[in-house]
Amino acid sequence: MASKSIKVLDWNDVLERAYGIGEQLTHSQEMRRYKEMRQEMETDREAAVLIESFNRLKEAHEEVERFGTYHPDYHTVTRRVREKKRELDKVPSIAAFKQAENDLDELLYRVSRVIADAVSEQIKVPSNNPLYELAGGGCGSGGCGTGGGCGCSAR
């Protein structure tokens, strides 16, 4: 009678392989581009001025947000935040950084998804892409739409 040998899980081996994957991700094209675009954005004067302005506006928005629509400046501040965000998105260095950030996030999601699926397709994997939640991997309630910020996680 042939007996099947069951391989005992060696946590050290699993962790070593995980660190190896992390090292590969650190040296990936997506990570290099992310770092490059972040550096470019951080040294862009126009971006710095707009980001500072946006952060001040965000603080004002957080203040009015505490009272919601009852605050007399709620709609004005909310509109100004949306306008400033659109202005930020038009700055080439910021747009390039956001694209690089999304590309890196996509890579991390896909690696996490492969690992999770190897264990069970029922395992949820967090994502910053709300489309993954719409594809059926999230909490199913529509949630926060961020794919993880509300405690839900997308597949």
Description:
The protein is mainly alpha-helical and 155 residues long. The protein folds into two domains: 12-122, Up-down Bundle (YheA-like fold), CATH 1.20.1500; 124-155, no CATH class. It contains six helices and no strands. Helix 3 runs antiparallel to helix 4. The radius of gyration is 21 Å and the shape is elongated.
Q: Oligomeric status of the shown chains?
A: single chain
CATH-level-4 superfamily name of the largest domain: YheA/YmcA-like
Biggest sheet descriptor: none
Reported by name, the CATH topology of the largest domain is: YheA-like fold
Low-confidence stretches: 137-155
Helix and strand element order: HHHHHH
Q: How many strand segments? A: 0
Q: Report the total helices.
A: 6
Distance between the amino and carboxyl termini: 42 Å
User: Roughly what is the average pLDDT, rounded to an integer?
Assistant: 84
Q: Give the amount of beta strand, in percent.
A: under 5%
Taking all Cα atoms into account, the compactness measure Rg is 21 Å
Task: Determine the fraction of residues in helical runs and give it as a percent range.
Answer: 55-70%
Q: What sort of overall outline do the alpha carbons produce when their principal axes are compared?
A: elongated
CATH architecture level-2 label of the largest domain: Up-down Bundle
Number of domains: 2
**CATH class identity of the largest domain:** Mainly Alpha
Structural class: mainly alpha
